[in-house]
């Protein structure tokens, strides 16, 4: 018996797309097969010392733990930020409502205190505007003292003091 070596197609030697011969499922194989290649030999295995394995495990555990703690911290801060944003949005909404109420109250006050409206309300109540403005009339007699003059209530204290006795 003789052994025949069949050549296997490689990606480089095979055409990009095989031509179809008959029908949708027919396949055409390349005419030549390349030589069979054995898989590459595996490198020689070595025993890793136990200390190296333990160190590697500890380092991996520390890195994974650090990543998990960092991720949980970021998630916690994000949740706190989201809660604060919700509270801030609620305060902004309440502030906008209060501002609208304040503006409406100012507008209503301006309308109610306008002179035209007050005059109209007085007419509806039966009041009439005065014909002429009042004029000052001179009064005969002594003029009252000015407002910034000293008070005269303590002028007679020497006469009243002996009647009070020892009481203050």
How many β-strands, per DSSP? 0
- DSSP helix count? 3
- What is the structural class? mainly alpha
Kindly provide the radius of gyration, computed on alpha-carbon positions and rounded to a whole number of angstroms: 54 Å
Instruction: Give the overall silhouette.
Output: elongated
Note down, in words, how this protein is organized:
- There is one protein chain.
- The chain has 168 residues and is mostly helical.
- It is built from three helices and no strands.
- The chain has a domain at 50-121.
Quick synopsis:
By secondary structure, this protein is an all-alpha fold. The chain is 48% helix and 0% strand.
List its traits.
mainly alpha, 168 residues
Write the layout of secondary structure elements.
Layout: H1 50-112, H2 115-124, H3 157-164
């Amino acid at each position: 018996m003789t052994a025949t070596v069949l050549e296997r197609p490689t990606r480089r030697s095979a055409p990009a797309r095989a031509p179809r011969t008959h029908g949708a499922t027919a396949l055409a194989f390349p005419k030549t097969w390349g030589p069979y290649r054995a898989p590459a030999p595996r490198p020689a295995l070595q025993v890793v010392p136990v200390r190296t394995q333990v160190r590697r495990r500890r380092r991996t555990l520390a890195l994974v733990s650090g990543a998990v703690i960092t991720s949980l911290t970021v998630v916690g801060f994000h949740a706190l930020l989201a809660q604060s944003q919700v509270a801030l949005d609620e305060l902004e909404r309440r502030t906008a409502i209060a501002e609208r109420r304040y503006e409406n109250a100012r507008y209503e006050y301006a309308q109610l205190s306008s002179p035209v409206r007050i005059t109209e309300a007085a007419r509806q109540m039966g009041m009439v505007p005065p014909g002429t403005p009042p004029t000052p009339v001179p009064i005969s007699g002594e003029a009252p003292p000015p407002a910034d003059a000293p008070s005269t209530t303590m002028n007679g204290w020497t006469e009243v003091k002996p009647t009070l006795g020892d009481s203050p």
